[in-house]
Amino acid sequence: MNVLKYLPDEYDGKGQLRLPFLFWPIMLLLARTWLLLVMAGASRQQGNDLLALFYPDRQAFWIGLALGTPALLGMLLTGYRTRWPRLWQYWRNVLLLSLWINLLWQGVQFTQGDLLSSPLPLLLTLFDLLALLWLQFNTRLRDCFSPEHHLE
Predict the structure, then answer these.
(1) Considering only CA atoms, which of 26, 34, 43 is closest in space to residue 63?
(2) Which residues, at least 6 apart from 23, have a Cβ–Cβ distance to it below 8 Å?
(3) From residue 38, how far is each of 41, 65, 97 by CA, in Å?
(4) Cα–Cα distance between 81 and 67 in angstroms, integer?
(5) What is the Cα gyration radius of the chain?
(6) What CA–CA distance (Å, rounded) separates 142 from 152?
(7) pLDDT tens across 14-32, in order?
(8) Stated pTM of the model
(9) Cβ-count burial of 30 within 10 angstroms (0-12 exposed, 13-18 middle, 19+ buried)?
């Protein structure tokens, strides 16, 4: 008898707790510079203009890529949750640390007055803060990173 057929909806076919829906938009928010890089690469003629529009300072672009790398790796790691459970368990802390560093970097940018020309950086900072709070305090998401909630 297949036990996995009778699992509640919050578990997938492998016996893992499903990731909440908001996990994916938050990962895309954190990896937004990588997403912009892919979009710029797809539009070859306007790629440089697109990058210059969002990142007039090239150093900020490279910092954005570095800060988005943990989210990009986290998206790739979701497929390997059962193979590397200990790495998956600690990846939540990596994402939290990445968000803290991102918020501190944005705070430094605000104090230097670099981001005051547009409301977009303030909005992104607000979304990053909400993502940090959700990653920190959402119990269902915390359970998804915990190996005790895997049915095997």
Answers:
(1) 34
(2) 141, 144
(3) 5, 12, 25
(4) 22
(5) 18
(6) 19
(7) 556 677 778 888 889 889 8
(8) 0.77
(9) buried
